[in-house]
Amino acid sequence: MQRDGIYADNFTYPFLLKACTGLKMVEMLHSQIEKNGFFSDIFVPNALIDSYSKFGGLGVKAALKLFVVMEDRDVVSWNSMISGLLKVGELGQARKLFDEMPERDMVSWNTILDGYVKAGEMEEAFDLFQKMPERNVVSWSTMLSGYCKAGDMDMARVFFDKMPAKTLVPWTIIISGYAEKGIVKEAIRLYDRMERYGLELDDAAVISILSACAESGLLALGVKVHSSIERLRFRCSVLVCNALVDMYAKCGSLDKAWSVFNRMEKRDLVSWNAMLHGFAMHGYGREALQIFSRMKKEGFQPDGVTFVGVLCACTHSGFIDEGVEFFYAMEKDYGIVPRIEHYGCMIDLLGRGGRLEEAFRLVHTMPFEPNEIIWGTLLAACRLHNAVELAEKVLDHLLELVPSDPGNYSMLANIFAAAGDWNNVASVRRRMKSIGVKKLSGASSIEIDDEVHEFTVFDKSHPKYDTIYQMIDRLRHDLKQVLHLKDTVIPVEVGEVVI
DNA sequence: TTAGGGTTAG
Hints:
Layout: E1 2-3, E2 6-7, H1 13-18, H2 23-36, H3 43-53, H4 56-69, H5 75-87, H6 91-100, H7 106-118, H8 122-131, H9 137-149, H10 153-162, H11 168-180, H12 184-197, H13 203-216, H14 219-231, H15 238-250, H16 254-263, H17 269-281, H18 285-297, H19 304-317, H20 320-334, H21 340-352, H22 356-365, H23 372-384, H24 388-401, H25 406-418, H26 422-434, E3 444-448, E4 451-455, H27 465-483, E5 493-494, E6 497-498
Antiparallel strand pairs: 1-2, 3-4, 5-6
Helix pairs in contact: 2-3, 3-4, 3-5, 4-5, 5-6, 5-7, 6-7, 7-8, 7-9, 8-9, 9-10, 9-11, 10-11, 11-12, 11-13, 13-14, 13-15, 15-16, 15-17, 16-17, 17-18, 17-19, 18-19, 19-20, 19-21, 20-21, 21-22, 21-23, 22-23, 23-24, 23-25, 24-25, 25-26
The structure holds one DNA strand.
């Protein structure tokens, strides 16, 4: 049948609906369907609910409107509607529908279970899990993923070990979980076990594990995944390559990131952004800006993420004026309205560049309510330049937003300490004590030969601490020479702690 | 119709 240039029937509508890329398209098909009287088949309205639900609150509203007037509903209609509500965070309403269902299948249970898991309500999820009449690998994986996200790797492991049949998905979840937490040995051990198990990797598994490695700087596992990809002649999609570039860049292997990037047959905006950020983060400002011009030459339109990278590159390489110029060019030449992240970059740029007053002004004049990241950035800049008075003002704002963050107090104490104002250092400490804020000492870790070495302030627990501190002294000495400084205290960072 | 999926300031 042909109407308005569209050929479709009961069988093809679900496919067409699946391919919709916007709410308007779904609406158009919906009115076609109603006009053509193709509503008798349950697959069509079910597909409509599903497609509507892909497009946010408005879509879910439209789906609900349809769901309510449907004469026949099968379990899939209910499941789709519940899943749609969960996508927009309507857990309460989803639960109500779930309770009203005339019959439930495994998917219904798994869907509502995932709703609680995604909301971080693991106790309720556990309760549901126990009440389920039967469970499959999806139910187990849903719980597993919840515990991993909550950082409870002990419970995650219990569920992983106990689950009856493990597909690639639970393996991916637990390995990514360990990797994200920086539990290297277990992550690697399980990765090896998974490979021996003979499971075939797919895009999602590779991307998920690589991004977990990127997050915690876990190069060793990232390299393993990369060599599996090459050994298996895995079809390296743009997404997988992007994940590799990002992982290498975040783990500090810029040369590897660069070589993957260069060998990519096809690149998208994310590939360019990932490479640009890689250079920017590691202080290769010129290289980052070269990437920026090259991507434009090759026809890629920069987006907001690109400009975060560009501004970050300018900050970390000391290109203050250039950074300011890029910031104004964003909107004027590229039509990208700066978001709060961009203002954050600017405050960092100006602040680190010593233009603290300007940074402070920008915080007050920007069209966003400053958040704790903004104030935190400014506080760090005050610390860098020993701007005691400004730091106190900034801290007041910061404490309004996050009253009990120990890091902020420590930062202020450090600023007073650097200025030799020991009375105020003591007063900050007293203030922390009086409201019960405890300073957590920051720990940093590096990974050598699959072994993670962790450091805290004045840490002497490492077997080679002697050599380590000798090296720090040498670095401090060399830096002074290079920078032609005499009496300045050069902060040499060991982990997050300035010695 | 249900579990894992890329880039974003400090």
